[in-house]
User: Which sequence fits this backbone?
């Protein structure tokens, strides 16, 4: 029976490559001593200048409400313009497009990821309320999207794959020369919780659904997850978390173990819980928790999936947690495994 269940899960993973796997929210452990939540190289040819030397900018404007003024950025804008407006990036993270997100923020507020190609903007992501596109901003209701956008796509074609789109927590829209992904929050009345814009040629020339695993991508997804967690916490007026270097090996070993042994569970093959694994590494805590995700194409999709699961959301927004360590690894089909271990 276990073999049949395992084969069934493998088939599901192959048929639904970005499905969100999670354990039931009722997996919560309480003890008299500790409260333990188990909530669980292809060539790119971009033309950004016409014969007169002016950039061929997208007609999609990304408006920024900054210092009580409205500024506009667009795909095709120069890196110099962005840095005059936002300053120097605070960090960067390698992503699934074989490129890098430059990360801008002010103590995790006004968080925005921007991707450049040949010095021009080709991608934008944010989960902050001071940005808007086509009159849609973070907090806009899902039922009003049709007033501003085309109908959601039913599938997305890359160089070597066709991705069926059936996620009720996000929609992808083709607008002019870009793909816009809108992420929704079911616990905030399905309001927009994240906006991602990717230039058409970047999305269509993505060589495969899952990027080939490498250390840069592993580090990039880890960084993205950390900034997304803290960007979300500041949006909900909560304190940010410090990155937990001591906890990271605990999370990383579990991500690696799941990827290598092809399972997805808070309990490992030795039936050790997250708290057993923390104890083995002599990790001290009063409160601790773990979130798992697997199969999403990037840390952005994984984060929004977790925020739409009640137990995982509670971990991200837990007032008692002030540290997080993150593990990332990749399975046999290059699908990512995400492990977030929280404590105070």
Assistant:
């Amino acid at each position: 029976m276990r073999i049949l269940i395992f084969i069934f899960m493998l088939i599901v993973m192959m048929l639904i490559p970005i499905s969100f796997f999670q354990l039931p929210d009722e997996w919560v452990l309480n003890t008299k001593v500790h409260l333990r939540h188990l909530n669980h190289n292809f060539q790119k040819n971009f033309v950004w200048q016409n014969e007169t030397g002016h950039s061929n900018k997208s007609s999609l404007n990304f408006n920024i409400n900054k210092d009580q003024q409205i500024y506009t950025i667009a795909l095709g804008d120069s890196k110099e313009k962005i840095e005059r407006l936002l300053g120097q990036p605070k960090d960067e993270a390698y992503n699934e497009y074989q490129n890098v997100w430059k990360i801008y923020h002010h103590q995790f507020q006004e968080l925005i990821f921007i991707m450049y190609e040949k010095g021009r903007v080709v991608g934008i992501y944010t989960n902050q309320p001071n940005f808007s596109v086509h009159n849609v901003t973070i907090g806009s209701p899902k039922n009003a999207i049709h007033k501003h956008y085309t109908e959601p796509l039913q599938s997305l074609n890359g160089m070597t794959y066709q991705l069926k789109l059936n996620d009720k927590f996000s929609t992808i829209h083709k607008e002019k020369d870009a793909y816009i992904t809108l992420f929704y929050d079911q616990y905030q009345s399905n309001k927009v919780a994240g906006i991602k814009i990717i230039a058409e040629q970047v999305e269509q020339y993505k060589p495969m659904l899952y990027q080939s695993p490498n250390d840069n991508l592993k580090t990039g997804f880890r960084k993205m997850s950390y900034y997304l967690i803290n960007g979300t916490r500041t949006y909900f007026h909560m304190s940010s978390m410090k990155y937990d270097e001591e906890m990271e090996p605990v999370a990383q070993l579990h991500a690696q173990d799941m990827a290598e042994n092809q399972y997805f569970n808070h309990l490992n093959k030795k039936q050790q819980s997250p708290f057993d694994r923390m104890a083995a590494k002599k990790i001290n805590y009063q409160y601790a928790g773990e979130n798992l995700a697997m199969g999403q194409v990037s840390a952005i999709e994984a984060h929004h999936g977790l925020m739409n699961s009640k137990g995982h959301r509670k971990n991200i927004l837990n007032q008692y947690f002030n540290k997080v360590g993150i593990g990332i690894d990749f399975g046999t089909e290059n699908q990512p495994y995400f492990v977030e271990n929280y404590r105070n």
Q: What stands out?
A: The CA atoms of residues 76 and 220 lie 24 Å apart. DSSP finds eight helices and 19 strands in the chain. The longest helix spans residues 215-235.
